[in-house]
Amino acid sequence: MEGIKNLIFDFGGVIINLTRNRCIEEFAQLGVDVHEQLEGYNHKELFMQLELGAISTSEFRNGIRLRSNLPMTDAQIDKAWINMLDDVSPVKLDILLQLHQQYNVYLLSNTNTIHWEWAEKEIFSYKGHTIRDFFHKTYLSFELHMLKPNAEIYEYVLQDAGLNPRETLFIDDALVNCKAAEALGIHTYNAQPREEWHFLSNGNASL
């Protein structure tokens, strides 16, 4: 971590564990096949549009209904979509709180309103905290209308936060996202599934 002053974390697959299959199976029970749309790191069609902030949550839900032959409520759709989000290790949350005291810590995530509102309520209320206790600022795709791995979203974060890429470590579970950040001179770490990255608390990250 020598020379690193800024940390940028991804959310899904880095902080929170993901279970795409559980989400896909629950949508299937509602009569909607979303396997192709949710395969891989980059979501497609309605899901991508929602993460880009190109459609509202109401438009998203109505789009899901149009694909199904079964009646479904907003709550059923939201539950199936949120089922992609799994558990978060308390160890990670404690490390984030510690890092917040030592570094400039940011979140950069391809996410959407439904997932993010749930995460703020269920994840980042840990031990009575709020999102501001974990990150100095959050950069969310649906608010920025930009998605990783497009260079423009990394350029925006660097400029908005006034970061020197050489002093910045970006942690993401998608190698393509890491490669895009590296092209701008940002140090990266490709996080593995369910890794708790104790090395960050010990200051032993290998760049």
Could you describe the 3D structure shown?
The protein is built from 11 helices and 5 strands, in the order E-H-H-H-H-H-H-E-H-E-H-H-E-H-E-H. It is of the alpha/beta class and 207 residues long. A 5-stranded parallel sheet has the order 3-2-1-4-5, with helices on both faces. Helix 3 packs antiparallel against helix 4. The radius of gyration is 17 Å and the shape is globular. The termini are close together. Residues 203-207 have low confidence and may be disordered.
Task: Give the topology.
Layout (H helix, E strand, L loop, with lengths): L5 E4 L10 H10 L5 H4 L6 H7 L5 H10 L7 H9 L7 H13 L1 E6 L3 H10 L14 E4 H4 L6 H11 L6 E5 L2 H8 L4 E4 L7 H5 L5
Parallel strand pairs: 1-2, 1-4, 2-3, 4-5
Structural class, by secondary structure, is alpha/beta
* % residues in beta strands: 5-15%
State the separation between the terminal residues, measured CA to CA.
8 Å
Contiguous runs where pLDDT drops below 50 for at least 5 residues: 203-207
Specify the overall morphology: globular
- Backbone CA Rg: 17 Å
Q: Helix count, per DSSP?
A: 11
- Mean residue pLDDT: 92
The sequence of SSEs as H and E is EHHHHHHEHEHHEHEH
Please give the number of β-strands. 5
Largest sheet: 5 strands, parallel
Can you list the strand order of the major beta sheet? 3-2-1-4-5
Estimated helix fraction: 40-55%
Oligomer: single chain
Summarize this entry quickly.
With 207 residues, this protein is α/β, with parallel strands linked by helices. The chain has helices at 20-29, 35-38, 45-51, 57-66, 74-82, 90-102, 113-122, 141-144, 151-161, 175-182, 198-202, and strands at residues 6-9, 104-109, 137-140, 168-172, 187-190.
